[in-house]
Amino acid sequence: MRREEAKFTTKFVSEPGTKPKNNDYFGYVQLDNYAVWAIADGYDEEDGAAIASKLAVESAIEYFMLRPRFNPEVIKEMMEYANLKVKEKQEETERYSLMHTSLLIVISNYNSILYGNVGNTRLYHLRGGYVMYQSSDDSIAQLLVEEGALNTRDMKYHRQRNDLLQAIGDFGKIKPNVIKHPVQLQEKDVLCLTTMGFWENIDEREMEVELSRYDDKSKWLRSLERKIIATLRDEVENYTFAAVSIEGVAAPEPVEKDKKKFWIKVALISLVILLLILMLTFWNIKKRNDIIKKATTYEQMADEDLIKKDFNNSMEELKLSIGEYEKLKPKSRGIIGFFVNAKNRRADADKRIDGVRKKIEQTEKLKQAFQDISEGNEFFNGGRYDEASRKYQQAKYNLEQNTYKKDELNTEEILVTLNTRIDSSSKLKEAQSMELAGDSAYTAGNYNLAKESYKTASDIYLVNGRPDYVSSMERKISEINDKEKTAYSGAMLTENRGDILAPTDSNMSREAYYQARQMYQVLGDSAKTQEIDNKIQELNSRQIANLQTASNMVKEGLDQITANNPSEAIALLTKAKAIYQGLQDTNNASNVDNYIKQAQEFIKFESDTKTQLANQEEQSKLEIQAKENEIIAEKERLEKIAKDIENATNLEIQGDQMFSLKRYTESIQKYSEAKKIFENLKAAGNFNDQTNKIDYLGKKIVKSEGYLYEEQGDTESKNKKWKEAEKKYQMSKDNMELSDVSTEDKKRVEKKLKNATKKANKKWWEFWK
C-alpha cells in the first residue's frame, strides 16, 4: 500500500476568532493509496453558514471514498457533488436558502497532489522553509491581482477580498479552479490549507519565519495562532489552519485518468467523426441525388422534345445529361478509391452514360427517319414517286429498328402510313407512267389507247388519294373526245375516197382503205376496222376475179386465134389488156398486147396471101400448134400467178388480223409466207416488179418481231430473268426503230429496257431498288 511507503502528518487549528460562532470546517481521510483534505469557510452573514461548510466537506470526502482516484476530474466531480448537496439543503429549509461556503480540496497519491477550490479558501505549498506557491481564489481582489492592478501582498487589505464571484451553493453551475497537472511532493514539504481568517492576518513571510523557528508543527501552528490573535484588526474572522507535513513520499505513480471521462471523450470524438462522416456522406448523397435529378430532368426534357419531334434540342439535352453523369465519377483512386467504392461508382456512371448515348443514337435515327419522311412527302407531293419511295423505305427501315419511345411517337401507326405511302408511290408511279403513255398515244394520234391510259391513271390517282390529278385526266379525256370527232371525220373521208377509187383504181383504193383502217384502229373502233378489212377483202377478191376474168379472156382469145378467128381473139385480148391496165399489171398488159399484135399480123397475113397460107398451111399448123401450146402454157402460168397473188394477199390479210389480235408469232409467219410468194414472183419476172410489196411486208415482219420481243421480255421479267429480259427489250427497241411504230410504244419499250438493265446490274446490297 502506498500509505505505508509514505508518511503524511496532518495537524490543524480551527477557531471562531472574534465571532460568536465558527463557520469553518476541516476534514481529511488517508486511505491505503489515496488521501483527501477538504476545508470550507461558510459565509458568516448568512444563516446556515456552519451547516454549509460542514455539508460541503463531508459530501466531498464521502464522494471520494466511494471511488478514490487521482485525477483532476474527480476534484470537479467532488465540487459538483458538494454543491448539489448544499443546494438540496437550501431547498429543504427556507432559512438556509442563502447559505454559501468556500471549499478547497486537495487529493494525493502519496507522491503528488492535485487541488481545486471555489471561493476564497487557500492552499500554501512550502518547500525548504519557503512558500513555493499559493492557490488563487474567486475574489474580486484576485481579479485585480491577475490584471496587475493589485499586488499579491496587498490582497489581504483590499476591501473586496471577501467579495466572491462564485461559491458552493450558487444557483448556477460552478466552475472550480482545478490544476490540470499534479504537483510532485518532496520530503519536508508542508501543505497549508487555510480560510480567510488565517490568510488575511498572517503574512506569507511570517509563515516562513515561524516555520524556521519550530521543527514541531504543533508549536508552529500555536505560534501562528498567537500572531492571529495579536493582529491589529478590530475583528478576526473564523480561522482554520491545517498543516500537512510530508515526511516521506511513495514511489511515483502516473495520474490516474478517469476512464469514464476518457471513454466519454472517445465516444464524443467518435460521435463527432461519425457525424462528420454522416454529414459528408449525406452531402455526397444529396450532391449525387441532385446530379441524378438534374440529369434525369434533362432526360425528361429530351423525351418531351423528342415527342414534339424537336430532335436537335433533344440530343443537346441528352448531351447535357451525359455531362451531369460525368460528375458522378469519383476522382479518387488507390486506397482512397477503394474505401469510397470509386470503381463501382464509375461503373454505374458509365452505365448511365452508355444508356444516354444509346438514346442519342436512337434519336439520330429517328431524326433521320422523320427527315426522310418529310423529304419523301415533298417528293410524293411533287410527283417524284421513285425518290419518295426510297425515302419512305429508308425511314421505314430506321423506324423498324428503333425501340426508343416507340409508343409515344406512334411508331406503329407511322409504319402503317409509310407502307401505305410506299404502296401508293408504286401505284402512283404506275399511274404516272400510264399518264405519260396516254400523252404519247395522244401525240401519236392513238386516242383510244390514250383514253384507256388516262382512265387507268385516273382510277389509280383516285384510289391513292390524288383527286387533284383526276380532274387533269378528265380534262385530257375530254380533249381526246373532241379530237376523236375530228379523227373520225378524217377516217370517214379516207374511207369514202377508197370507196370512190375502188371501181377505177384498186391499188389507190386499197391504200386509202389501209389508211382508214389504221385510223379506226387508232381510234379503237374495231367494228369500223373490221368493216374496212371486209372492203379490202372485197377489193382483193374483185381484183382476183378481174385477174381471173382477164386470164380467161386471154385463154379464150388464144383459142380464137387457134380457131382462126383473129377478130374475136383481138376483141377478147383487148378487153383482157384493159383489165390488166386497170389492175396496173403492165407486165401482163404488155404480154396481151403482143398477143393482139400477133392476131393483127395473123389477119394481115391471112388477107394478103391466102396462097402463102395454103402453101404454108402445113407449116402454119405446126406453128399454130406450137402457139397453142405456148398459149396454154401462158394460160397456166397466168392462172398460177393469179392464184399465188390471191394466196399472198390472203396471207397478208391474215397477218394483219393476227397483228391486231397481238398474236405476233402467227402474224410474222403469215407475213413471211406472203413475202416469200412475192419474192418467187419477182424472181420469175412475173406480174411486174414486186420490190415495193416485198419491202412493205418486210417492214411488217420487223414491226411484228419488235412487239413479239417485247412480249418475250415481259415474260422474262415476270420470271425475274433480268439478263434475258434486257436482251429481248433491246431487240424489240432495235426493231421498232426500223419500223413505223408510235413514239409512245418506243418510249414504253425504252423504259422497260432501262428497268431491266437496272435490275440486271443491281448489287445484292441494294435491296431497296
From TrEMBL:
Write the protein's name. Serine/threonine protein phosphatase-like protein
Mind telling me which residue stretches traverse the membrane in this protein? 262-283
According to the UniProt entry, the coiled-coil residues are 308-366, 610-651
Q: Which organism is it from?
A: Pseudoleptotrichia goodfellowii
| Keywords from the UniProt entry | Coiled coil, Membrane, Transmembrane, Transmembrane helix
Taking every annotated instance into account, which residue ranges of this chain make up the domain PPM-type phosphatase?
3-244
For whether the record's keyword set contains Coiled coil, the answer is yes
Please name the InterPro entries in this protein's record. PPM-type-like_dom_sf, PPM-type_phosphatase-like_dom, TPR-like_helical_dom_sf
